[in-house]
């Protein structure tokens, strides 16, 4: 962060834990406009997932004074990589999807994000492509979706405009949380925090293997059951200890399934 941004546009300390993730952005200008939208609200961490084109002169022109936010943006190949260390991941959607995630209003999403950040968690707000939004697979990585309650007949905002609305709500929630100068509080023990995206994905991979090992699906496609199970466990907000217990149960289940298989 430049010294100018510290004096003119001070960020709340918790802003360090809030990241805006843009997936597959198609128009380079939108990355600049999104950076500007963020910086006006004191947000500083931008992550670009596989943008169609790298930020270019048009991006920087539209970023205006937020070229520091754009310049420091991290680029990742996948959404999973961008949110691996996040303990809350919210996907912003212009319309309801089949995935049927819990759907939050922007204000509630911001309140939840700031509360989690205050507890020591990294938080991501994820935005999709201009033409097609987020895929169902990408939404499945999220704990909940966020919908700006726009005109139902014309509900799709420009990408950077959507980032502006969510950034503003985050700003309000941060201001309400108060103590602009305070350092973020955090648990001393990361096991007390909600499990990270990476820990949850490790659990889901083992769950899928275990269900196969006990022939749970009986020839049916596993996708529908896995989608429902993902939703259930993501909604539960497990901490790292709880994930360890569940993985222990799965490991024993896998072991017993193998023993049963070898006896047959
Ligand atoms: N045609 C796309 C719209 C993409 S707009 C679709 O139907 O999904 C680009 C991105 O801006 C979206 O992926 C979403 O992250 C965000 N966005 C646009 N309008 C929104 C709204 N009303 N609520 C929440 N996010 C929105």
Automatic annotation (TrEMBL):
Gene3D superfamilies reported in the protein's UniProt record: 1.10.8.590, 3.40.1280.10
Protein's GO biological process: methylation
Keyword Ribonucleoprotein: no
Domain tRNA/rRNA methyltransferase SpoU type: 18-168
MF annotations from Gene Ontology: methyltransferase activity
Transmembrane segments: none
CDD domains in the cross-refs: SpoU-like_TrmJ
InterPro entries in alphabetical order: Alpha/beta_knot_MTases, RNA_MeTrfase_TrmJ/LasT, SpoU_MeTrfase, tRNA_m1G_MTases_N
Quaternary organization: Homodimer.
PANTHER family: TRNA (CYTIDINE_URIDINE-2'-O-)-METHYLTRANSFERASE TRMJ, TRNA/RRNA METHYLTRANSFERASE
Protein's name according to its UniProt entry: tRNA (cytidine/uridine-2'-O-)-methyltransferase TrmJ
Originating organism: Lysobacter arvi
Gene name per UniProt: trmJ
């Amino acid at each position: 962060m430049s010294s100018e941004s510290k004096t003119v546009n001070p960020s709340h300390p918790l802003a360090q834990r809030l990241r805006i993730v843009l997936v597959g952005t198609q128009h380079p200008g939108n990355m600049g406009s999104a950076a500007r939208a963020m910086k006006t609200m004191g947000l500083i961490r931008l992550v670009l997932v596989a943008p169609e084109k790298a930020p270019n002169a048009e991006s920087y022109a539209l970023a205006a004074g937020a070229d520091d936010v754009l310049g420091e943006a991290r680029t990742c190949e996948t959404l999973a990589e961008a949110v691996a260390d996040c303990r809350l991941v919210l996907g912003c959607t212009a319309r309801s999807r089949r995935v049927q995630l819990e759907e939050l209003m922007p204000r509630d999403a911001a309140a939840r994000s700031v509360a989690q950040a205050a507890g020591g968690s990294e938080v991501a707000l994820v935005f999709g492509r201009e033409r097609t939004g987020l895929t169902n697979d990408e939404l499945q990585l999220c704990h909940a979706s966020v919908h700006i309650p726009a005109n139902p007949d014309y509900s799709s905002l420009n990408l950077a405009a959507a980032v502006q609305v969510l950034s503003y709500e985050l700003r309000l929630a941060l201001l309400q949380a108060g103590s602009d100068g305070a350092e973020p509080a955090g648990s001393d023990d990361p096991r007390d925090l909600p499990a990270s995206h990476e820990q949850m994905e490790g659990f889901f991979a083992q769950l899928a293997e275990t269900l196969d090992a006990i022939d749970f699906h009986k020839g049916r496609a596993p996708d529908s059951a896995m989608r429902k199970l993902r939703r259930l466990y993501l909604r539960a907000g497990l901490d790292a200890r709880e994930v360890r217990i569940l993985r222990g149960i799965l490991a024993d289940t896998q072991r017993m399934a193998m023993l049963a298989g070898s006896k047959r």
